[in-house]
Amino acid sequence: MNAKRISHSFILFLIAVFFLSACENNEKDLPQFRKKQVIIDEGKQIIAYMSENAKVKAKLTSPYMLRNEMDSPYIEFPRTLHVDFYNDSMQIESLLDARYGKWRENVSKVFLKDSVVVKNIAKGDTLHCQELWWDQKAEKFYTDKPVRIHKKGGTIIYGTGLEAPQDFSGYTIFQITGPFAFPEKGFK
User: Fold this and answer.
1) pTM for this structure?
2) Which stretches does DSSP call E strand in the chain?
3) Distance in angstroms (rounded) separating the CA atoms of residues 69 and 40
């Protein structure tokens, strides 16, 4: 009877060892396992409209889009993007182009980089920079990186750091560098 109890205990021990060893993950495999859990949607020839109170505010176009659904989901535009911004009369008031964009859904902010250009249609002013943030809720652009603004009359303004409304109707440059012409009548 003692031998049967020992053999049953031994068999139960072997079964437990088998199941416990079968559930083990190799630590080297964990990063790959986590990557496989990320859901990625892919889109081509994207046209997206952004609206507020049933009014179209912007139209985004891009040849390629990736959507990553993680704890902090984001949409990536790795092959350029273009945005037309509309006024209340549905006229295009400004344009945006960049070679790369990443929209963080949870905070409604878009990080733009690589040959970023923003143009105000009415004034003709054009912003050129390498990195720019677009805050959709605040409807503004900002950066702490170098900027270059080409004014309609041919003047070029250089600086570091900028804040501007998304229609690019005006702007604040935080550190102007290079030559700058002052208006004869002074500033308002």
Assistant:
1) 0.73
2) 39-52, 55-69, 74-77, 81-86, 92-98, 100-104, 109-120, 126-135, 140-150, 156-165, 172-177
3) 7
Q: Give the span between the Cα atoms of 87 and 122, in whole angstroms.
A: 12
Tally of CB atoms within 10 A around 110 = 23
The class that CATH gives domain 40-177 is mainly beta
Q: Give the C-alpha distances (Å, rounded to integers) separating 79 from 41, 65, 88, 146.
A: 15, 8, 30, 23
| 3 state SS of 132 | strand
Q: In degrees, to the nearest 5, what angle opens at C-alpha 155 toward C-alphas 157 and 169?
A: 70
Handedness of CA 84, 134, 48, 127 (dihedral sign): positive
Concatenated DSSP letters for 137-185?
TTTEEEEEEEEEEE-TTS-EEEEEEEEEETT-S--EEEEEES--PPPTT
Which residues, in sequence order, are CB contacts of 130 under 8 Å at separation 6+? 113, 114, 115, 116, 145, 146
70-120 pLDDT tens trace: 778 899 999 999 999 999 899 999 999 999 999 998 898 999 999 999 999
